[in-house]
Design goal:
Elements lengths: L3 H7 L28 H17 L3 E7 L5 H12 L4 E5 L8 H13 L10 H7 L12 H11 L7 H10 L6 H8 L6 H7 L8 H14 L4 E5 L16 H14 L3 E8 H11 L2 H4 L4 E4 L3 E2 H17 L14 H7 L4 E2 L1 H21 L2 H9 L6 E2 L2 E2 L9 H21 L8 H14 L3 E5 L12 E5 L7 E5 L5 H16 L5 E5 L10 H10 L5 E3 L3 H18 L4 E2 L2 E2 L2 H11 L6 H5 L9 H4 L3 H27 L2 E3 H11 L5 H13 L3 E3 L10 E4 L10
Parallel strand pairs: 1-4, 1-5, 2-3, 3-4, 12-13, 13-14
Antiparallel strand pairs: 6-7, 8-9, 10-11, 11-12, 15-16, 17-19, 18-19
């Protein structure tokens, strides 16, 4: 077995991963668990879950802590620890408070449709097979199931026949997706509604609230609703304050009318102190049953955190390292954190930087000299248990590459999770598009163009295009039901009649109905010619917008860490503009917002030439990815590890193609193979660092 130093030289930096955001549908056990960190707080929340499980009365926990204190990490641990006695739902920030119940239902059902760790069925199917009406899990025929459920739950169930019928259809492979779409509130077309035997979709806040209540009534376990990243929710009308009251209206309704629900409101402590507590009505604040405050961790806990990240590397080493945190030391920890308290994130960031420095010096010095050099490193300074604020760097190629890698990682996750445009509803889609327009410095953005329609106002906006006079209106509606489409077309017609915009663009991938239908007739009148247009949406565009939105959410919640910096939203926007990464979004190109020079080969109808262009484009992405790892993530990394990372990031790329990229970078004198005569599995790659004159060392 190799020595620990050889393993460290070859391996990824074990401190790279940070846990943030949605834990439902994400790969579990991505990072080691340190049981002692926030253990008491975790046990307290688990106890509240037990209370709900016993008396079925709703409870609310406020989870508060400074940025980087580990709130998202704790929620992930809670789900792993209590997954056998509760169902968990992660609720993303909502785009419009007028849709908050429908938003909550959508994300609750999406989460319940995910399979828990080590389970073969979704949380929702597990729920159905454990309800009291069917102690042996045998649900019989569809009608038997409906009759039995209606007899068991005689009161409190809304639209019982349709609701129970759709639940049964979740077990039918041919209807499973359609049934889950109905439950999450999609506005299904007539054919899908008929296949489920229901008359209408869940198309109002009242209906969504009642379906949520239905789920609580039939659930044999508590349903834990985790509201996170609340710095991203809408502002109150004509106010700078976030509309946190909308969430507490939902919470109070759960307490009053529902059962078996537990809400966890995860919020940054400073946000709550400065804005929220004066904006939430006293009666709603009284619904908070338990307040859990996450505190800074001690050096002992930080040392355990370091040890947990280094443990997988230590297991591969022979002989075993002299300490659980080797090559790091307790002395370094004390020098880096002289006040004796820190946040988990800061401890990880410092560990990551020290490992990077250690990997570099391993090439040019003995381990003893390496320890001495790093031991003299200037300690970082924390203020209020936060990393010291550093001035934002000027945009450099290396930092851009770090952002691109963060983007690629987020895009890859979204590609696995988001498989269709209707993963999001209309207000979310238009909100994500609005964020992109704002970042690209489009002027005069005004939301809710279709103000005459309470249903479709939140699916529209207008803006001042940079290249001509007049306003452009955007409407994004993917609702497949033709009656709803007709109402949307009427709202578009009224907006044009009122001259609210001089050009109106309909963004839609769904059909537009038959020629004899009213909605199609209005559509033909508006969008048959200039200046109004129908732009077909595509999944790739949604992935671009969703990826950027996820980065924005992290930046607003102070969770976006790139190249050892916690990025502000303003600096993220600057990096995105300078990188022009959003210019690759097809929808923004169709709108004329983002314009890229198109290579001549891509304009031809020659499929072979187009395929060749796409391969070249992917090759460039692989090259940027490899450069980022070597220049920003790991100044030194094993050749095989680098190839494995690239192939993992780009599944369509073969290892031989990555080898070609590495060889090209070697020939360009950008990277160097440190030990070219060693076997391939032992070879190390490092960056050829230019000096002040531009020459390379």
């Amino acid at each position: 077995m190799p020595s620990i130093d050889e393993i460290i030289k070859q391996a990824d930096n074990p401190f790279d991963k940070y846990v943030t955001g949605n834990f439902c549908g994400e790969e579990q056990n991505q990072t080691p668990i340190v049981e002692s960190i926030h253990q008491q707080e975790l046990l307290l929340i688990a106890k509240v879950i037990d209370w709900v499980g016993k008396d079925h009365r709703p409870r609310t926990v406020m989870l508060a802590g400074d940025s980087g204190m580990g709130k998202s990490y704790l929620l992930n641990r809670l789900k792993q620890m209590c997954g056998n006695k509760a169902f968990f739902a992660y609720i993303d920030p909502w785009a419009d408070s007028n849709y908050i119940w429908r938003h909550t239902l959508r994300y609750t059902v999406d989460s319940l449709m995910q399979e828990p760790e080590n389970q073969q069925e979704s949380q929702l199917l597990i729920m159905l097979k454990n309800i009291s009406a069917f102690p042996e899990g045998n649900m019989g025929s569809r009608q038997q199931f409906i009759n039995k459920m209606r007899a068991t739950y005689r009161s409190g169930i809304y639209n019982g026949k349709s609701f129970f019928g759709v639940l049964y259809d979740l077990n039918n492979p041919e209807l499973n997706i359609t049934a889950s779409d109905w439950l999450r509130g999609d506005d299904l077309d007539e054919e899908d509604l008929n296949s489920l035997g229901v008359k209408r979709a869940i198309d109002s806040e009242d209906a969504a609230q009642k379906i949520m209540r239905n789920l609580g009534i039939i659930s044999p376990r508590p349903i834990v609703l985790c509201f996170d990243q609340l710095d991203n929710i809408p502002r109150r009308q004509n106010s700078e304050f976030l509309d946190i009251q909308a969430l507490f209206n939902v919470n109070s309704s759960l307490h009053t009318y529902s059962r078996n629900f537990m809400a966890i409101v995860s919020i940054i402590m400073q946000t709550w102190k400065r804005k929220m507590h004066v904006e939430v009505q006293s009666a709603d604040q009284a619904r908070i049953n338990v307040v859990v405050r996450l505190k800074p961790i001690s050096l002992d806990r930080a040392e355990e955190l370091w040890a947990s990240r280094l443990y997988p590397l230590h297991q591969q080493a022979n002989p075993q390292p002299p300490s659980p945190i080797y090559p790091l030391t307790r002395q370094w920890l004390e020098e880096k954190i002289p006040q004796g308290k820190t946040t988990p994130r800061y401890a990880l960031m410092e560990g990551r930087k020290l490992i990077e420095e250690y990997k570099e010096t391993l090439v040019i010095a003995s381990p003893k000299v390496t320890q001495q050099r790093l031991g003299r490193a200037k300690p970082a300074v924390e203020q209020d248990f936060q990393p010291a604020t550093r001035p934002e760097p000027t945009v450099k190629a290396d930092f851009q590459a770090a952002l691109v890698r963060a983007w690629d990682h987020e895009f890859q996750k979204n590609s696995q999770k988001i498989t269709r445009i209707r993963h999001y509803d209309g207000p979310e889609l238009i909100n994500m598009l609005q964020l992109a327009l704002k970042t690209l410095e489009i002027k005069g953005i005004k939301p809710k163009l279709l103000s005459s329609s309470a249903t479709f106002a939140s699916c529209s906006l207008s803006y001042q295009p940079p290249d001509r006079q007049g306003r452009v209106g955007l409407v994004w509606g993917e609702n497949p039901h033709m009656a709803s489409f007709s109402y949307m077309m009427k709202a578009c017609e009224q907006a044009i009649q009122k001259n609210l915009c001089q050009a109106l663009y309909l963004i839609r991938s769904e059909g537009v109905g038959k020629p004899n239908q009213k909605g199609n007739k209005i559509y033909q009148q508006i969008f048959a010619g200039s200046p109004h247009r129908h732009i077909k949406s595509d999944l790739n565009s949604v992935l671009y917008l969703a990826t950027y939105y996820n980065l924005v959410k992290k930046a607003r919640s102070r969770e976006l860490v790139v190249a050892d910096r916690v990025l502000t939203l303003e600096y993220l926007e600057k990096l995105i503009r300078d990188s022009q990464i959003l210019h690759n979004c097809p929808l923004l190109q169709k709108l004329g917002i983002a314009v890229l020079p198109v290579p001549e080969v891509s304009r031809r109808d020659d499929d072979e030439q187009n395929a060749e262009y796409q391969r070249d484009d992917i090759g460039q992405e692989v090259k940027y990815f490899v450069l980022d790892i070597v220049t920003n993530k790991h100044q030194l990394i094993g050749r095989n590890t680098l190839i494995e990372n690239a192939c993992s990031q780009f599944p369509q790329v073969k290892s031989a193609e990555v080898e070609q990229v590495i060889q090209q970078l070697v020939e360009e004198n950008i990277v160097r193979i440190v030990n070219p005569k060693a076997p391939l599995e032992q070879q190390l790659i490092c960056w050829v660092v230019p000096d002040a004159t531009g020459r390379v060392e």
